[in-house]
Design brief:
Elements (H helix, E strand, L loop, with lengths): L25 H9 L1 H4 L7 H9 L6 H24 E3 L8 E2 L5 E2 L2 E3 L3 H15 L13 H28 L3 H35 L7 H9 L4 H18 L10 H5 L4 H27 L6 H14 L6 H10 L6 H16 L7 H16 L7 H4 L10 H27 L6 H24 L5 H35 L15 H10 L9 H12 L8 H6 L4 H17 L9 H13 L7 H13 L6 H15 L4 H17 L42 H5 L5 H11 L15 H14 L15 H80 L1
Antiparallel strand pairs: 1-4, 2-3
Helix pairs in contact: 7-8, 7-9, 8-9, 9-12, 11-12, 12-13, 12-14, 13-15, 15-19, 19-20, 19-21, 20-23, 21-23, 23-24, 23-25, 25-27, 25-30, 26-27, 27-29, 27-30
């Protein structure tokens, strides 16, 4: 018999998969599309015939073939049971194997048990038997396989999470500390890299801004970093870069028509550079305006904005910079407020950078800001107006230009009259002259457009707009002060506007009116003087409301009102005819209300200088009343105020000879009593006080004043006589005397005798020593004062000598120039006289 032939079954076909589930990569599709000639045969394959050919078995009956397939299925089911009975190896010892469908298989070890051995025996028996029994093995469908795969993936994820949680629990505190240290080290390294990056980008931009203009976006991105130090460093770096690369002109982006035009590469490059710079600058300003509202970045952002406004006020987006600066001009933070005020002052003083346009915009914004806040701002917000400067010659140049035009018209008429008498052959010359005049006019217009100097009319417009905004602000502040004081005097509740608030802007407003009083229109002078009179308390009302009115203001503010009224009057002497008696009355009453610790002595000294010392003529009764009031005032207050008052007394006595009768010591008062026979010290009007009937007995006490300067000045005044031929010169004003004595007050300290007089025995020797030491100290201080006085007189004399030398040199220079001019005229006349006889000889 021959050997039995072994039957080999065909392999199992792969499972059928839907076309939606098939994933094909882009590379495969690209490969197939590129090689369609070689892969075209695949579409023509007959899959059914191929499967039939693969699955057929030759020379085998159908029954035997079915039994073979059943045996193979049984064998597979036994293998699965064997895998279930096997033990899994520890996952640390053996790595899993991942199949194509995403399953993870771990190594297993079979269980050594009797049940497994029996199963194996049964398996062997079943394999040996040709006709085995079906053990009801169920084949899984495709959907069940998918659900099983999903379930297995979920279980694997849960196991991985549990393992991670266990590892986290098992972490020691050392690992946590090490992790934090690593994070800090990485953050520091990142900050250092960003700093180096900023430095590189900034240097590249400064070296070649046109080629590296894209680096601005990277610097802006770094300035938005979460670290505070890096963000501040980025803002400062961008500030330095923009200050250096911003051009000296205002960028205008091209229109749509201009973009459609064909231009050269250089023009395209320049357009790209300007647009990129402008967009980056805009983003930077938006970043600064957003950061200035945050407390941590406020000072840095305001400093950057102020620096840009001061450095490039001509560039784009100036309005946004000015708006931010004006909003912070009254900030409670002293640093920010002073920085913004300094920036506004630099704009006013350096108008050459922007041509005056920024000045007009800043003044108008401040005026609107004062109006919006109802005049309740810091005084520095209006004090910046004192830095403005106005050209007073603009009107004069206009008149001069008009006269020149009128003269030119006359000359042209004369020339035309002469030319009409000539022949018509000069028509060509006329046409040439017309062409020349046209070309000259065109050249002049182009030169004006290209030059940086502004036209006179433009400057006049800018100056008029600035003045109108400034005086509008000043008059609004005065009106608000009047209304608030009226409301307080009437007793209206605090809910009214300005009833519970003060007027902090009144002092800088009065200073500004005093400075620009010569520029105020004459139509407003009368109303201005009336406002100042009411604010100073000079209103005459029968119901006594004036007393309630002026009590709302401080002594310094009332003194400022008097000073401003006198400044306005002196600047417009020819146009105004106003009686200032009310202001003298107020000054006479304010002197008694003054307190050194509360009020400002500088303002009082200025009022004494302007109202009493600078006036050439004074009424005798008024002068005597002020002399008596100031002498009494000097007894009650400090050395600085006493010095200012005594200097004023000396000035009044020098100007009014009849007032020197107050120095006489008669039994019934002065020799010239006037219409009032008795002195009334409590009179409110100086003309009704009758001071000429009194005697300056205060000088006797002031000559014994503790301060040697006051005592020497009082003794010098008391030695003046009534003779009219005597002339006294005083080089010191009340302001100078006040400042000098206030500076000396710090170094001048009088040592008092602290010894007690209760015990006569103890003070016998010690009192003598103390008195001796005190006398020596006083003599030293008097010696120092004498030396200081002599030195001051010496330096004044030296200053006068140097001034006379300078004036003499200027006089000699002008005299020599006049002589040279006369010689030139003589030579010119001689030349003309010599040329006339030559002409006669030729004829």
């Amino acid at each position: 018999m021959g050997k039995k032939q072994k039957i080999v079954l065909p392999p199992e076909l792969p499972p059928e998969i839907a076309e939606d589930e098939i994933e094909v990569s882009d590379e495969d599709l690209q490969f197939v599309n590129e090689n369609q000639e070689y892969a075209g045969f695949v579409s023509n394959l007959d899959t059914k015939s191929i499967t039939r050919h693969v699955t057929r078995v030759a020379d085998v009956k159908e029954d035997a073939l079915e039994s073979l397939y059943e045996r193979r299925l049984r064998k597979k089911s036994l293998e699965t049971e064997k895998e279930g009975n096997e033990l899994e190896v520890d996952r640390v010892d053996a790595l899993p194997v991942k199949t194509l469908d995403g399953k993870l298989f771990y190594r297993t070890v079979p269980k050594k048990s009797q049940h497994s051995e029996n199963a194996m025996n049964d398996k062997d028996i079943g394999d040996n038997e040709p006709d085995g029994v079906d053990k009801s093995v169920v084949k899984l469908t495709k959907a069940e396989k998918r659900t099983k795969i999903k379930r297995m993936r979920k279980e694997a994820k849960k196991q991985s999470k549990e393992v991670a949680e266990v590892e986290e629990v098992e972490e020691t505190p050392q690992t946590a500390v090490l992790a934090e240290v690593e994070k800090e080290l990485t953050a520091e390294e990142a900050n250092e890299r960003k700093k180096y990056k900023l430095a590189e980008l900034g240097t590249s931009l400064l070296m070649d801004p046109e080629d590296n203009i894209k680096s601005l976006k990277e610097m802006l991105q770094i300035s938005k970093d979460g670290d505070h130090a890096i963000a501040v460093l980025g803002l400062k770096s961008l500030l330095a870069v923009f200050k250096d690369i911003i051009p000296g002109y205002r960028i205008r982006l091209p229109t749509e028509k201009e973009l459609e035009m064909v231009v050269s590469k250089a023009v395209k490059k320049m357009r790209y550079y300007e647009s990129t710079l402008l967009s980056a600058y805009k983003a930077y300003l938006q970043r600064l305006t957003a950061l200035q509202q945050q407390a941590s970045f406020q000072r840095v952002a305001i400093r950057c904005i102020c620096t840009l406004l001061d450095a490039v006020p001509h560039f784009n987006f100036r309005e946004s910079l000015l708006a931010v600066v004006v909003q912070n001009i009254s900030s409670p933070d002293d640093v920010i407020r002073k920085l913004c005020c300094a920036t506004i002052k630099s704009l006013f003083t350096n108008e050459g950078k922007h041509g005056g346009e920024a000045t007009v915009e800043a003044v108008q914004l401040i005026a609107e800001y004062v109006k919006a806040h109802d005049c309740q701002l810091h005084p520095d917000s209006v004090e910046v107006f004192l830095s403005l400067s106005f050209d007073e010659d603009l009107g004069r140049t206009k008149m001069a230009n008009a006269d020149a035009k009128f003269k030119n018209k006359k000359n042209k008429k004369r020339k035309n009259f002469k030319e009409s008498s000539q022949l018509q052959e000069n028509d060509k010359k006329k046409s040439r002259q017309e062409l020349m005049s046209k070309t000259r006019n065109e050249v002049n217009s182009d030169f004006k457009a290209a030059s940086f100097t502004q036209d006179v009319m433009e400057r006049r417009r800018i100056q008029s707009e600035t003045l109108s905004a400034v005086f509008q602000t000043f008059f609004r502040i005065l009106k608000h002060s009047m209304q608030s004081i009226a409301v307080r005097s009437e007793g209206i509740s605090s809910s009214s506007a300005g009833a519970s608030r003060g007027h902090p802007l009144l002092a800088p407003c009065l200073n500004g009116i005093g400075k620009f009083a010569h520029l105020i229109d004459l139509d407003f002078m009368g109303d201005l003087i009336n406002y100042l009179r009411k604010l100073a308390g000079g209103g005459s009302n029968s119901d006594g409301s004036s007393e309630k009115f002026w009590k709302q203001l401080t002594v310094a503010e009332r003194l400022r009102c008097c000073i401003v009224a006198f400044k306005v009057m002196r600047n417009n002497l020819d146009a105004l005819n106003i009686d200032l008696q009310d202001f003298f009355v107020q000054l006479y009453s304010i002197i008694l209300e003054y307190k050194p610790g509360r009020d400002q002595g500088e303002i009082l000294a200025e009022a004494l200088k302007i109202m009493l010392c600078d006036d050439r003529q004074h009424d005798m009764q008024r002068s005597a009343a002020f002399i008596k009031r100031l002498a009494t005032f000097s007894l009650c207050f400090g050395s600085a105020e006493s010095m200012a008052a005594m200097v004023t007394v000396k000035h009044l006595l020098q100007k009014n000879v009849k007032c020197r009768n107050l120095l006489e010591n008669d039994a019934g008062g002065g020799s010239v009593s006037g219409p009032i026979a008795k002195y009334q010290p409590y009179a409110s009007d100086p003309n009704l006080s009758g001071a000429l009937a009194s005697v300056l007995w205060e000088l006797n006490l002031l000559s014994k004043h503790y301060h040697p300067a006051v005592s020497t000045l009082a003794s010098s005044i008391s030695t003046m006589h009534t003779a009219q031929n005597q002339v006294y010169h005083s080089n010191v004003s009340p302001q100078q005397a006040f400042t000098e004595s206030s500076l000396e007050r710090e170094s001048f300290n009088l040592k008092n005798d602290t010894g007690k007089q209760n015990h006569k025995r103890r003070r016998s020797v010690s009192s003598m020593l103390d008195n001796n030491s005190m006398n020596t100290d006083i003599t030293r201080e008097t010696d120092e004062d004498m030396v200081r006085k002599k030195l001051s007189e010496h330096f004044l004399a030296v200053h006068d000598i140097s001034e006379t030398k300078r004036l003499r040199s200027e006089l000699d220079h002008t005299a020599s120039s006049l002589r040279l001019y006369e010689l030139y005229k003589m030579q010119k006349k001689l030349k003309k006289g010599a040329s006339k006889p030559k002409k006669m000889i030729k004829m």
